[in-house]
Known about the structure:
- The protein is of the alpha/beta class.
- The chain has helices spanning about 15-30, 85-90, 95-105, 115-120, 135-140, 165-180, 180-190; strands at about 1-10, 35-40, 45-50, 55, 70, 105-110, 130, 145, 150-155, 160.
- The two termini are about 25 Å apart.
Amino acid sequence: xxxxxxxxxxxxxxxxxxxxxxxxxxxxxxxxxxxxxxxxxxxxxxxxxxxxxxxxxxxxxxxxxxxxxxxxxxxxxxxxxxxxxxxxxxxxxxxxxxxxxxxxxxxxxxxxxxxxxxxxxxxxxxxxxxxxxxxxxxxxxxxxxxxxxxxxxxxxxxxxxxxxxxxxxxxxxxxxxxxxxxxxxxxxxxxxxxxxxxxxxxxx
Length: 204
């Protein structure tokens, strides 16, 4: 089995989460050994996303052994306010769970400003990373070497992707890297979206 878990929270950017979910859900239809789930990082509440989409009846995000990939979406960092990633960083609840997932063996990745939750979890220490172009300066201010010009930065057990639509790139890249390049190609054809060829892998 290849298990992918995507934690969501109030203010999450819809496409940050749904993009990689779509990639792995399509892959699962072609290969039943793949499993992808959205999980609620704020249990007990419906998740209202940045643009009004509501997600309910989700399992609770609780790290466990056997997860292969965690994809952390972003949302609402650039616009400010107490929602989305900023709220999750200040609450201090999700970041330790991401560190726990990593300690249990999962590759932990981010889309867009989800990178700030990886930083809060201590997973970006000494590693290059990327995020939305409008948030690169903020990431650098936290001491993270921020890479521009690449939609995916792959450091092995920690992988970051750029803004919003790059969640598709992340999903296809991880499918190609960890599961099956041929399957990644077939999913890319279904999506009418290319598997990324230019991925930063140096300096990790």
